[in-house]
Each structure stands twice: as structure tokens, then as C-alpha cells.
Amino acid sequence: MKIKWNVFILTLIILSFQAACEATESTTEVNIPRDPEQISGDITVWAWALEADFLESIVPQFQEKYPNVNVTINKQGPDQVYQRLITGLAANQGEQLPDLVQVEETQLLSYKENFPDRFTNLSELGYGKYEGQFAPAKEEAVKDENGDFLAMPRDLGPVGIFYRKDIFHQAGVDPASIETWEDYIDAGEVIQTKTGVNMLGLTLNETVPLYKYMLHQQGAFYFDSSGNIDVHSSESIRALETIQRMQDKKLITNVTNWDGRVSALKNGHVATLPGAIWWTGTMKDQMPELSGKWGAMPLPSFNEKQGQGANGGGSNLVIPKASTNKEAAYVFGEFATTEVNLLIGGLKNQGLFPSLLATYEEKEFQERQVYFDNEAVYNVFASIAKETPVVNYTSDYARANDIVNDEIVSMLLNGKPLDQVVGDIANTLGPSTGREVNKP
Amino acid sequence: MSIPSSVQYNEDPSPPQPKMNAKKKRSFITVKRAPYLFLLPAIVLFIIFTVYPIIYSFLLSFQTNAEAGRVFVGLDNYIRLFQDRLFYESLANTFIILIFQLPIMLGLAVVLATILNAGFIKLKGFFRVSFFAPAVTSLVAASIIFLLLLNRDYGIVNYLLSMIGMDAIGWLSDPFWAKVSLILVTTWRWTGYNMVIILAGLQNIPSNLYEAASIDGANKIRQFFSITIPQLKPVILFAAIVSTIGTLQLFDEPYTLTNGGPINATTTITMYLYRNGFEYFDFGYGSAIAYVIVILIALLSFIQFKWAGVTK
Fold it and tell me: Environment class of residue A329 by beta-carbon count within 10 Å: exposed (0-12), middle (13-18) or buried (19+)?
């Protein structure tokens, strides 16, 4: 009997812990004062890598306008930001959370649905006035089901194809002739036979986003707009068939991981790189000797009608509901996402490609870059960003991405047949997410 | 006689003693309670950081995320688990690694320990430290080195293989070889640790056993199999159980080396748990996996005890 009492008391302690952990929510209305001087206090911002550097760099200008707000940028690794955000949101305590935090749009819905009602509705604070001013694919991804802003859009990762002009020239292939993926494969074959260089390298140990890009440019995704699993769609089959054909024609080399991929680019083992704009930073930084040898073009299309835009990466700023200084957090976030000059600075200094459409009209976007053989690369990617279709990432993006990736690697490494690949994605993803699968 | 003595006791010139006793009784700290008080910080921390999570994750394993928060779903998570292809794959990976890695590692550890225990070896301290060093090395640093060594295109391992005319091996990019690499790295890391445990066991074997065997004409190899191994049995069993538990919880090595890939070939059960919890936010499902691991570890340890015939 004694032992049972102990267990009982222990359970009581644990339940009281749990009760203590369920925090009370502050429901005070927030109004942003008109006068910048009226906003005051300290705010903490969590961000990683270049985004953190960008935010840090704009603090002096911010304080000129809002002299009474103190901003602390807490630069961490992305894993650390996400992990701390999970525990912070679970506890929902102000002191465990920042006032403003960087979140990618691919992760946003996961956080929103697994931690309901933990982020501030930004449209209610006045962000609604910026509606329609961002690249559509970005804007829709940061809104909730009622069309309210859940996050303030920061950078985008429009995807195009970088190619080695010298290798194309050597093989006698005119890059302008590549309009469809068919053309791309044909060009790849010529380059392969004439120079022995592979058309592209895939990181089979990490992620193979090519399929995702191909879906995205057709306006399709792993999920349809209502969240059902949509891998049986004709767009999906077409994308997989194209990748399969590249593999059959031996255009793909397995570059293992990030380092392998970078070294393959540097050593000229691959002629093209289907990738996002932020690759330009890595290229200029790690392979300066290839200056003038690179060109960029939009993704080839599947037929003339379809758009050519896809997105690979990009983040946003959200305000947790537990924040005790939402006014200051809001004005800092607004400042960081809507001031054209600052965003251009972020592009030039940190390589962060803005999603605010107004920035694309600036002269910096028309600037010809020596590294890209005097092409106006930013302009190429700005038009890709505008064309990128809206897709539904859902709250199960991370799981879907892993499962899809495994199956595509199975297809490429083990020669798993295409119909089996599609079937296995659906059969694994369906039960683990509880989502319906659209029939072929 | 007794009355005066008791009077004398009461009138003893050292009255503080009974007073002190009275004081002690009133204070909370007594000789009996003191040990518990000293233990209290440890117990409180243990309850907060171990007992509470154990019980909470047990409760979590019966819950799932719904729109309004977590709801109880009974055994749904466990049922889903037994229909989950990826769960079986990660379980199979873990057992393949266990089955190949454990005997290799323990065998090597016994051989190394025996050699380092032998009288004729010079620089014993140096060798012992060298073999033990991987266990205390930061794995992240080590795995960067391994990533470079094992790279398919420019790694030194493939370079050496090419010098003897062999084809390049995708040490990390081929599903089969990635498992081999993982087994090699785990063995590299933990052999020295087990070697030290076994070395301690070796030094407890009485030398008169070997002397008697020598007189009977048994050579060194015979002595190794007939004296060393049987005498080491409990130590080897201990090392085997600790290593089995370690392998079932294998996480750092595949996480830093291959991140579970390619095609989940190196996804261990603990990695799968981590993914479900911290990447997919499916804490309920992750907790269910954790409890299955606990049951597996208990079962395996029980079997190892039985198999080794250890009795109380």
C-alpha cells in the first residue's frame, strides 16, 4: 500500500507540473501608435546566418526612426532557432520566446497547426495594407486561411539554371536553344559526348529538390490546394519521367552532399546547376576563378504555356503571441520587410533576394554582373520570382519532403520503377499524415 | 544507589548536552534526515528531468495532434507504428548494425586488451590512450574528418584504393557502403572504450591460473581460449549489454555522417524517433517509438543475461 501512495503522490506532482506549464495567454489589444517616439522598450530577435547579419545591419537606421526601441539580434544556427521555438511555443512563456523570429514559409504551417494560436495576427496590427505588394507565391505562403498575414515576408529563393558558358561553347551548344526540358536533355547529351562533362549533379545523400522545382513551376506540389496528397497528378508523373530520362541518358552524376556539389561545380564536373539565386553567393565566394564563365536562365518549361518559376528557400518574420512588446516587434519587422533601400542593401551585402515587388524596379536589378559575363542576373531571377505559382506547403511539408526524397533517390540509385515510386510515396505519406490521396 | 546516581546525572556540570538534544529534536535537520536532505537536490533534479519526462512521454504516446491541441487516441500510435514501413526499415538498419558491429567491436577490444596487457609490449600508456582517444573525441569534429576521408571523388580512402587498381566506392552515397561506413566509424569510436573495460577485467584474472596452465603445457593461444575468455565472461557480458543499449540508441554517428541516408539506409530507430518528434512535430508518435525502444532494450538485455547463463 505504501508504494501505491508514492506512485499516487508522484502522479500528483507530475500533473501539477503540467498544469503549471500551461500558461495563461495575454489577450490585450495592441495598437501601433502613430508617433514613432511613443514606441519604446527592448525587443529580442532570433535569426540565423545572413538574415541575422542583415537584421543586425539595419538596427542603426531603425533607431534613427524609433529612438526609444532597443533591438537585440540573437544570431543562432537554424536548428537552434527551430528547437528553441518548439520548446518556447510549447511553454508559451514570454521569457522563453523572442519578440520576433525568423521562420521559413515551408515550416510556417507546421508551427501554426501544431501550436495553434501562438502567433500574432499581423493584419490586425496593420500589415494588411501591404497586401499585393509581395511576390504572389511568397505572400500566399505567409497568410492564414482567412487571408491574414501570419508572417512578414523577407527573402525568396527563385530557382533558375546556372550554366557554364565555356563548357556550352566548347560543346557547340547554344544556351538560348534550351526552352523545354526536352531541349535541356538533348543539350546534355551533346555536352556529354563532346566534353565528357555531366549535365547536372544531384546530392543523393541529402536532398534532391529538382522534382519539387519541376512540380512548383507547373503550379503543382506534393499536396493540392485543399491539402490532399497529389503525387499521382500528371504534372508529378511528367516531372518524374523527365528525371528518369536524365538518369537513363546518364546526364546525372551523384555528388553525394553539399561539399561534393560545390567541388563538382568548382572542378567543372557539371555543366549546369538547377538552383536558387542564393547559389550566386556561394559561387562568387568559393569559386572566384570562374568569374565570367557562368550564365543564368529560367528553368526550362514542360510546354510553352506553363510558367517557369519555382522557389527554393526563403524566410519570414513572425511575432509570437507571448511577446510582451508586440508594438516594437511589429515596427521593426515592418521596417525590415518594406523599406526598399534596406532590402536592396540586403541583396547586395548578404545576397538575400527580396520578395517586395517594388525593389525589382530599382536600378540594382538591372546592373550587369561581371561574374555572370555581364548578364543582369538579378533581373532574370526577379521575373522568375514574379512568375512562381502559389502552392500549398501544408503542415506536413517536412515529412513529405523526406519521403519524396527517399523515393526519388531509390529511383535513381536502385532503379525503382516510376509507378512504384509514386505508389510508395502515397502509401507512406497517407497513413503518416492522415491526409487523403488523390486518385490518378 | 540508583537514586543518587540519577540525581548526580541531572546535576552533571555538562548540561548543554540534553539541551542540545532538545534543540535538535525541534530542528528539521536530524541525523536521520540529513542524508535525505543531501540527496534531495539530486532527487528533485531526477524527478524533474527524468521521472517527469518518462511519465509524460508515456502519456504522450497515447495522444496525437489535432486542430485544437492534443487528444487521446488510445493505442492508435502503436497500431500506426506496426504498419509503418519506415519504422521497420529503421529497426532493420539498427539490428543489422548491431549484429555486425557488436561482435567485431568486442572481438577487437578483447584482442587489443590482451595484447596491451602482455608483458612484452612497450609504450603501453601511449597505446592505451591512443585507442581510448576516439571515445572522448568530439564526434562532430571526427565526422568532418571522416566525411573528407570517405568522399567518393576526392577522399583519401578511394585514392588509396585506386592505387591498387580498385574502383571508387561510394562510401557515403551507396546504401550498402554507407552502412559499412557507419559500422566502421562506430567501431572506431567505441572499441577503445570497451578495451579499457576489458583491460580492467584482464587485470583481475589471477596469474596463478596462467602459471598452472604453463606447467601443464598449454600454449598462449590455448591459455587465451581456456582461461582468458571464460574468466572474462562477466566483463564481456557487461560490455555487450552496454554496447547493445548504445547501438539501439545510435544517433550521433548517422546524424553527423549521413543524416540517415541514402534512402534511409542508415536511419536508426533513434533517428527516426528524432525526426518524428522534432522535425515533424509528431511528439505522440515519437513517444510511442521511444517506448518500443525501451521494451526492445529490456528484452535484449534479458536474452543476453540468459544466454550468458549469469545467475544471481
Answer: buried
